[in-house]
Amino acid sequence: MKTSVAIIGGGPAGLLLSQLLHRSGVDSVVLERKTKDYVLGRIRAGVLERGLVGLLEQAGCADRLHAEGHVHDGTWIAQGEEMFRVDFAASVGTPVVVYGQTEVTRDLYAAREAAGGRFEFEVEDVVIEGADGDAPSVHYSVGGERRRLDCDFVAGCDGFHGVSRRTIPEDVRREYEKVYPFGWLGVLSETPPVADELIYANSPRGFALCSMRNEALSRYYIQCPLSDSPEDWSDEAFWEELRRRLPSEVAGKLVTGPSIEKSIAPLRSFVTEPMRWGRLFLCGDAAHIVPPTGAKGLNTAASDVHYLWTGLTEYYRDGSSAGIDAYSQRALARVWKAERFSWWFSSLMHRYPEQTEFDLKMQTAELDFLRDSASAQRAMAENYVGLPY
Ligand code: FAS
Ligand code: PHB
Asked: How far away, in angstroms, is 283 Cα from ligand 1 center?
């Protein structure tokens, strides 16, 4: 089989890239390790930056997003019994849209299928060959049959545990990592959200987040020890702990119900440089990971896709390699700003085992400054709604 761009990974990054390339007249094939249903069964991100909304509009996949997504002009920050609001609209004039990553992925699959997009599901033993030459190829097995995909370029959109990043020789790669000493226990419940906007809470018992997917589907998180597993937490124990981390006025309004999904995600900051090696380009979680506090994971995958899509379109349309040659440097410049914001917001909102009394005073002073300063709120809003591409 032959294509222009071989895309490894059928998550949001791979699908969005494939659809945008299609709209630019560039052919691609998506190779996905799992089944489509498995990919659509993942519960992950919930907040879309303006940049991602724009890309989905350019991909022709934003109709349901605009019909069912919820525009949020701000978010609440709770510290103990106190709460204050960061007003995105007043600070930077831009909202975010709350619309689950699962739905984004569903819309992208629908668009690719409607356009006759080529997929291979349940691929195994993927090997990228010749990425440092002029004629790369991707080799993989499906149902025990070994197959080969010849291409001009390979987009590694296969997430943190994929094969693409490891294809870049170790003496070429530089990796930067910070592992956080806690995880997030997440629950999805068919209950009305406790508030109209998100609530990020810093409580003496640890971080909590109240989010949602729609008026009847809520998403909640609490910081938990890395040694915990979802089975350690009954629904009742989760709701009780969540209540204890929220201002009592909010806790009193919490509508609880059976969890329909319960999982624990570890938190890490991770970046690999460069994001290009020859004709292999890394995109999304394959190249970087952020703690989900700042809702930057999916949204930074989107900005990578923007840079790669525009660069590849320029190559095929104008014969210019300027865009793809600048890809890694452009993508990393924005990735590191997303890493910084996610690290800053995680440091502000979580309780860390090694925190001293002084550290806690610094955290309280930072929260007070964010509460009282319009410029501090503007800086947060600028990052939260999404820095320009
Ligand atoms: P993805 O990991 O989504 O997709 C990669 C795809 O590649 C997967 O479908 C995988 O099956 C496939 N793949 C892997 N290896 C392969 C191989 N060898 N061959 C072929 N295919 C292969 N972000 C937020 O903003 N907010 C959140 O709340 C949030 N929660 C998260 C919770 C969890 C448990 C995880 C793991 C991540 C979370 N994220 C969150 C981050 C997440 O949303 C990612 O940023 C987003 O999925 C990035 O998309 P992709 O880069 O496409 O990677
Ligand atoms: C979510 O709704 O899953 C969500 C929202 C905001 C975050 C992280 C996760 O910062």
From this structure: 11
